[in-house]
Amino acid sequence: MVSSLYTAASGMIAELRKLDVVSNNLANVDTVGFKREGITFSDYFYHIGLVRGSARKYEAYPERPVTYWFDAQNAVVFPDEHYFNFSPGALKQTDNPLDVALTDRGFFVVQTPRGIMFTRKGNFHVGADGILRNVDGYEVLGRVAPNLPPEPVVLQPGVPVRITEDGWVVQNGNKLYQLEIRDFNGDYNRYLEAYGYGYFRAKDPKNTGFFVQQPALAVGYLETSNADVVREMVNLIKCVRHYEACQKAVQVTFEDATGRTVNDVGRVG
Fold this sequence. Notes:
Layout: H1 2-27, E1 37-45, E2 75-84, E3 91-93, E4 100-102, E5 107-112, E6 115-119, E7 124-126, E8 132-134, E9 139-143, E10 151-152, E11 161-163, E12 168-171, E13 174-179, E14 181-183, E15 192-196, E16 199-202, E17 210-211, E18 217-219, E19 221-223, H2 229-265
Helix pairs in contact: 1-2
């Protein structure tokens, strides 16, 4: 009886966590370069303990038989891990020569007050100080030559600037900097964690990926969010319905327990 209350209540908590994720995706459907977030859940048996990442595995404990996973009554659902879908978003044409979108893997690199960040936001502008900045005012990094370290892209204010499809910042007909674009091998979720507002930072400061010497950019375009309104609205409705179902289960179980207490416990034998 009590275990079913815990199971239903944990379902409500899980749907609230999922609702936070879906709401964040919906709030960023118009954010340039945003990557939609997801969340997985796993079973938690009190007498075993949580194994992180078990939601993606059939058996968190290989030494136990498969049937073991179906005979525990005290099972609750537990948030397992957050992840991001790094699939590219659609391209939106702006015709701005300083708007660029990556058409392949990789990230632009910017300098922020909290350190180096990775982003797919490519809406740049030249500040009054001549530094190439992104839409949030962060310094865009580039290299004078591929074998030199990255540094802020510093230009001559008031002079037209353009960015080429292979990532070079050109002013007065001269290639001054190649944009610092970095990539990682395999799944980005292994290397990056969310910083917020379309920015990511390296989980391991010693592993910041590798420099992409031959990037592919779409000039005059921006990469839109890969969060889809229709899909997120469907997920939102699912969250609400699942929450209501778990809430009803809690209510029914509690009323049944209360009824048994009144009718049986208080009865004189």
